[in-house]
Write a structure and sequence with these properties.
The chain is an alpha/beta fold. The strands form 2 sheets. The chain has a 5-stranded parallel beta sheet with strand order 1-2-3-7-6, sandwiched between helices. A two-stranded antiparallel sheet has the order 4-5. Helix 5 packs parallel to helix 6. Helix 8 links the parallel strand 6 and strand 7. The structure holds thiamine diphosphate (TPP) and magnesium ion (MG).
Amino acid sequence: MKIDKQTVLELYRTMTRLREFEMKIQELYRSGVLPGFVHLYVGEEAVAAGVCANLSKTDMVWSTHRGHGHALAKGVPGRQVMAELWGKATGCSAGRGGSMHMYAPGCGFMGTNGIVGSGITMSAGGALSAQLRKSGQVTVCFFGDGASNSGSFYEGLNLASVWNLPVVYVCENNLYATEMSLERATKSLDIAARAAIFKMPGVTVDGSDARRVYEAAGEAISRARKDGGPTLIECKTYRFHGHHEGDPGTHYRSKEEIESWKKRDPIKALRESSMAEKVAGADEFDAIDRETQAWLEDAVEFGRVSPEPDPETALDFVW
Ligand SMILES: Cc1ncc(C[n+]2csc(CCOP(=O)(O)OP(=O)(O)O)c2C)c(N)n1
Ligand SMILES: [Mg+2]
């Protein structure tokens, strides 16, 4: 399938935003400006960008603890994600949530989540709701290789299958769950093959290739939209940083392994392959880079000057 130029540039724009955003978060976090706890998405950008480019605003996304990229790719404004990480009243969760409790249902973003695997069952519920309401919404659930070994994976995919739910499960297989390698966690290394248990399609994709992710997700999402049921997509990817900010990520992964994945940087790969194929020129990518910097500066400034939540409102949203 030939992906048009506009889509290529859109994928590049989303990926550069996700990358630059996370690098800024690392800087702000390390300098003690940002509170809380963050897991960065650096290296995995092609997955969120490729999948979410197929979704409309009202489609729903369930995320993980590594969710800033999912939120941005689904269209939550950078300002609101930044302000949330800053604990400010203007954040998408009014400064109450931080990195792992970001919600923006108006953008179809149903939350980042610190409980590994829990999005898998919640997204089945979301998809059931869409099916019952005949809303036409498709649900996407991102989760990691670690989550694929949790009970909720089997529970969620079983329900999605038996009820033919409009949901796409996207496993971000970055080979590790904290410092636990997938090989130490399971003998069932082919995660996409597990789809066969539930009689749903299972697809494996190079998660460093935004165009391949875009195509695979596009097929699964359009099938779900036509009442064709769920799909499991396994994206082979890698986090360039440690598990969370503070973990160097080097005591359980070899330097050679990290370097070999960095050579396949998804952003560079899209830029270089598109230029080689003459889909777009360097000036067009450079223009997006400049635009991304302006977007980021605006988000940082918004987060910086925004007020903290008023203590008088501490009990708002408490049920
Ligand atoms: C139910 C549950 N068990 C354990 C943890 C601790 N924990 C946080 S992240 C993580 C690893 C998750 O790995 P994976 O699903 O592969 O996602 P990745 O961090 O690689 O993106 C674990 C075990 C948790 N948050 N929730
Ligand atoms: Mg993982």
